[in-house]
Amino acid sequence: MRYDFDTVVQRRGTGATKWDASADPASLPMWVADMDFPTAPAIIEALAERVRHGIFGYTHVPDAYYDAVIHWFARRYAFPLQREWLLYTSGVVPAISAILRALTQPGDGVILQTPVYNCFFSSIRNLQCRALANPLREVDGRFEIDFEDLERQAADPSARVLLLCNPHNPVGRCWTAAELRRLGEICLRHDVTVVSDEIHCDLIHPGFRHQPFATLAPEFLARSITCHAPSKAFNIAGLQIANVIVHDVDLRARIDRALNIHEVCDVNPFGVTATIAAYTAGEDWLDALRLYLFSNYKAVARELARHLPALKLTPQEATYLAWIDCRALGLSSAELTARLAEDAHLLVSPGTLYGEDGEGFIRLNLACPRATLKDGLSRLRSALAPLAAAAPSVTTA
């Protein structure tokens, strides 16, 4: 492999939320969704050159930025963007809040497919809207959309928006074209606008492909908004840059206005530089990273099958976030995470962070060097093996 993903880089003491949020110096954080790998060499080199310039004033986003984004989507996803469709902003979460401001009024309903990314809930709450849960169905350990329930939720007179997580965090689904078409048809039927968060779309496992929602039909393109950023795939979340893709002129004007009202319409020079480098010279690195992440996922599957068979690993099609069913242990998600933190100094995300449908699950970030992953799995085993020994075995992925 041309790129080194095995070297452990010291992050503690660098101001990293993932590593410095805990006061426990023995802790191993495997929770928040950033990676423990340096970003692509091409990005590091481009940023170093930008730093050497020495002046970091207000940023004009150049043609090269738009060209890089447009070519990336065309090349990897057959999504033929137009420059005027793109609105840059500081992040996907600020974008979602601004979009909800543009599309809803207090008291309106926003559909969520739970368990789902926790910031969806806070965005809805902050805009004084109501969350309409459309819980995913678990079928033989794999999560699917409950379309009958979605029809009911979309028919709610208050429903205005569906927040789609595509690919899905935390369950790791890479939604198929057929699933997305059915979802889109329901939303069109009930005049519900789809806001598709596709921030994890560059992190697809072998055998699967990302399907942008907006490319499936002209009417989907016209009645949807796509949010995307290079932050997850290239580990540059701290550079705070993202794009909102809006085809409809009137809808785009409303969202542009909301981005300005929320004061998230400006970006920093490093985010611009990093995005251009990522999309013009980082593709080879990303493809190597994806293979390494898939190998880590398989290592987790083997470890649970051999040593913790009571735990069930959800089949993962995308992302670097393992969604693990621990319900056989008889503990709540809060009890599980507390036990892991206290007994093994292992920090993971409780499933209930993603809604009540996540009860009994934990989310484990596996985007780390193999040695770190091995350490984390050893800690997981030491803390949970006594409980797992008394629990019934289940088939793991």
Automatic annotation (TrEMBL):
Q: Determine if Coiled coil is one of this entry's keywords.
A: no
The chain positions of domain Aminotransferase class I/classII large read 34-380
Q: Does the keyword Lyase belong to this entry?
A: yes
What are the names of the required cofactors?
pyridoxal 5'-phosphate
List UniProt keywords, sorted A-Z. Answer: Lyase, Pyridoxal phosphate
Record-listed E.C. numbers: 4.4.1.13
Q: Single GO molecular-function term? A: cysteine-S-conjugate beta-lyase activity
Q: Name one Pfam family in it.
A: Aminotran_1_2
Similarity comment: family membership: Belongs to the class-II pyridoxal-phosphate-dependent aminotransferase family. MalY/PatB cystathionine beta-lyase subfamily.
NCBIfam families (UniProt xref): C_S_lyase_PatB
Under which name does UniProt file this protein? cysteine-S-conjugate beta-lyase
Organism, scientific name:
Actomonas aquatica
User: What are the leading ranks of the lineage?
Assistant: Bacteria, Pseudomonadati, Verrucomicrobiota, Opitutia, Opitutales
